[in-house]
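Dear colleagues,

For the upcoming journal club I promised to circulate an example of a predicted protein-ligand complex. I picked one with magnesium ion because it came up in last month's discussion. The inputs are reproduced below in full, followed by the predicted structure.
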Amino acid sequence: MLTSAWMWRRLPLRLSWPRVAKKLGLHGARYRRYQRTPLGAEIELRLVAPTTAKHVEQQAQALAVAYGVPRVRISLDSGRADRATVAIDERLSIGPLPFPDFHHPVGLPLDPLRPFELGIDDHGHPVNLNVYGQHLLVGGIPGSGKSNALRVFLGHLAASRNVVLFGIDPKRVELTLWADRFTRLVVGNDAAETTQLLEELHLEIDRRTAHLSQRAQASLRPSAEFPWIVLVVDEWAEVAAGGTNKERARRRTTPAFRQPWPCSWLHCDSLHSASHQ
Ligand SMILES: Nc1ncnc2c1ncn2[C@@H]1O[C@H](COP(=O)(O)OP(=O)(O)OP(=O)(O)O)[C@@H](O)[C@H]1O
Ligand SMILES: [Mg+2]
C-alpha cells in the first residue's frame, strides 16, 4: 500500500486524491479537475453528502501532512455548497514581484472612485478594492506590514481629486512623509488635539447631513464642495488609550470617534496594542 508523502506527491493528483481522501474519511470529496498554480496545485472538488466543505477544511492539516507540503488551503464556493477547492501549496510565497506602476503618466489627479490596486494575490494577479464609503481596519501582529498597507491606500488617495486627508500619527513617523498632502495631521498623542480634530470632523458631518436632508438625498459623491474626507489613523489603540481619564471620556462621547460616517477612516492597529483597549 502506498502511504508515504513521497509517493503521494509523485502520483498524478487524479490518482492520489481518491486514496488520500478515503484514508482521511473524506469519502464524498470527489475529484473534479486539477490545475497547476504558482504555489503548487489546486484540486476542484464535487462534494457528496454527508461530506461538506467544513469536513474538508477540518482535514487541511492532515492533507498537508499526507502530501508532505507546508500548507493546504480550502476555499468554499459561495455559489454552490457542493463545490470546494483544495490548494496544495508546495511553497508559501510566490516571491517578490515588481509592483505595477499605478501612477497617472502626466500626474493629473485621478478619479477617486476607481478601484485601488493594493497588491497581488497568491497567483500573482492584481487585487483591487473599492474603498469609497468603507471603513477599513488593518490588523496584524507587530511588523506584519500594517503601516505599509496603509501607505499603499494613501498613495492612491493622495493621487485622487476631491479627496481631503486628515491624519493621526501617534508614532510620529508613519504618516509624516505625507505631511504636505494632509489638510491636518496630528503628530504624537496629544489628547486635546486629537479630540479637537474629531470634533471638527463631526461639525463637517453635521453640515453634510443637513445638506443631504434638505435635498432628500442619502449619499454624496466626492465633489469640490463635498470632497471625500478620509481620516487615517496609524495605531488607533494608542490614540484611544492616550490622555487622562477625563480626556478619554470626552473623546469617547465624540460622535466622530464612535461613528465617523460619512467620513472614511483607515485604522492601523497591531493586535498586541489593540489588547490594551
Ligand atoms: N508587502 C511587503 N512586502 C515586503 N516587505 C514589507 C511589506 N510590507 C511591509 N514590509 C516590511 O516589513 C516591515 C514592517 O512593516 P510595517 O512597519 O508596515 O509593519 P507594521 O505591521 O505596521 O508594524 P508595527 O506593528 O510595528 O507598527 C518593514 O521593514 C517593511 O518594509
Ligand atoms: Mg505600524
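Two points we might discuss: Residues 146-147, 174, 234, 268 surround magnesium ion (ligand 2) (CB under 6 Å). The mean pLDDT is 84.

See you all on Thursday,
B. R.
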